[in-house]
Write a structure and sequence with these properties.
The chain is of the alpha/beta class and 263 residues long. It has two domains: 4-95, Ribosomal protein L30/S12 (60s Ribosomal Protein L30, Chain: A, 2-Layer Sandwich), CATH 3.30.1330.30; 111-257, 3-Layer(aba) Sandwich (Alpha/beta knot). Helices cover 32% and strands 21% of the residues. The chain has ten helices and eleven strands. The strands form two sheets. Strands 8-7-6-10-9-11 form a six-stranded parallel sheet. It has a five-stranded mixed sheet with strand order 1-4-3-5-2. Helix 6 packs parallel to helix 7 (151-157) and helix 6 (121-133) packs parallel to helix 10. The radius of gyration is 21 Å and the shape is elongated.
Amino acid sequence: MRTENLTTSVRKLIASLRQSRHRREEGLFVIEGTRAVLDTASWFEVVYLAATAAWLDEHGHKLPQAMPAPMVARRDEIERMSSLSTPQGVLAVCRIPEPPQVPEQISADELWLALDKVQDPGNLGTIIRVADWMGVTTILASADTADLYNPKVVQSTMGALARVKVIYTDLPETLERLGKQVPVYGTFLDGDDIYSAPLSAGGIVVMGNEGNGISDAVAALVNRRLLIPPYPVGRATVESLNVSVATAITLAEFRRRTGTHKN
């Protein structure tokens, strides 16, 4: 395998991509870890690949041929570039794709997610992973939702980033338009019990901010209010569910109830 030596300029560039400003300016983001690089990086345009000699000896033969020649880095150099507490010895620098546009229409049997100011990168990454598992391939995100290419988001998706389309948009405006085509659901403390409320096969499910829930502007566009009840009802519990956990429960109930599971 042909390799190159890691240069100081590339090392500094990769380290700088931990910051959103540099990701925007360079149009690049980082994928880290053995599984993520081998499974996910090939879905994107890889500009640089940096790895330790030991990693290349063990995994180099699995790299797609389209990858650029790996740059061999020392372990301490990987640690200086990495955003992980325990780096796995490999990083891929990929070009950020052109942002997708909101489709004009949504079909009656499509289920989408909408995220209203979900700010924690770990939550966003987990939600994308949950969406991938539940067959949701489109997520609408408010402009103030966490950056899709934040290293923690990329890591938390566990590869789902390659299969789920996340579209940043003016969420109230988009929901007002698409809400004329399909139901818009949201979870609220005064909603109807999700386990008995009627659910459609398609629609848009809105999940809100970690601390404040769904904003007033977006809540005004929700026409199906749902509640995930505690068990048993009336028992003293925590104040609310983590948004990624609530997303998983909600999507699972939609898939169970609407008969969209396929063998």
